[in-house]
Amino acid sequence: MDQRDASVPTISRIGPFRAWVTTFGALIGSGFRRYSTYRQATIAGTFTNIVFGFLRCYVLLAVAAEAVGQRPAGYGAEQLATYVWVGQGLLSVIGIWGWTELADRIRSGDIAADLLRPIGPVTGYLAADLGRALYAMLTRFAPPLLAGALFFPLHTPQRWQTVPLFALSVLLAVIICFGCRYVVNASAYWLQDARGPIMLWTLGSGVLGGLYFPLRLLPAEFVVVLWAATPLPSLLQTPLDVIAERDGPALQAGLVAVQVGWAVLILALAALVQRRAERRLVVQGG
């Protein structure tokens, strides 16, 4: 059958790049539609994020109130409130927790079907995750931010480049987080049961990603090493610092540039791990 007449777009010699883009876009759409069916979970999750937003915001504002005449870690009270409420909105967009689909499919053997598809598992799952993030951005980002704006004074961006840098930073954070989760899930190729690595990821990504408190409250030397040596601060700390305008324009752009480097590195690592895993399956006769 001529591939131009096929109902499912595939990569072919007739416009391979166009076919790849079409397939990638279709997978993003499928991810969006898949998560849009969980309406009750969306409402419940949004409500939970708002409740925890109040708790976190009051704690950080108490810290700011104790530092009379000072800016703890360089944040003003409005910037801390913005940090909390934007972070609560981004929590579901970036999707730090809850994804075990790859590990489950490896454990059940269903991963074999993924390997037979015309698009690789890393690319396919990335596209679906971008669709999930797009749905979360449309449904779960605004409510916590509006709730915070109703009860707390929030910081309004003062520089024109802040909003586009923030949008780019969020996209890069989604990609980096996906790559990290993919590598953690892929440990099931060797361990069969990835619950241990996933639990470590759940704990480490929240604490060292900037979810519970701004990492700038920690000693500066430790934060610099953490930012340069791990992708974790690029998950939440970077986009939140960008939108709160905690740093100057040059450092804002530098932090996003660090995210670009980590996004490339993590996706390359995910692809390498997947190739090694496929070789292991072939050797085992799978």
TrEMBL record:
The chain crosses the membrane at residues 43-68, 80-99, 133-153, 165-184, 196-215, 252-273. Keywords: Membrane, Transmembrane, Transmembrane helix. Coiled coil: none annotated. The keyword Zinc does not apply. Pfam families: ABC2_membrane_6. InterPro entries: ABC-2_transporter-like. It comes from the Bacteria. This is ABC-2 family transporter protein.
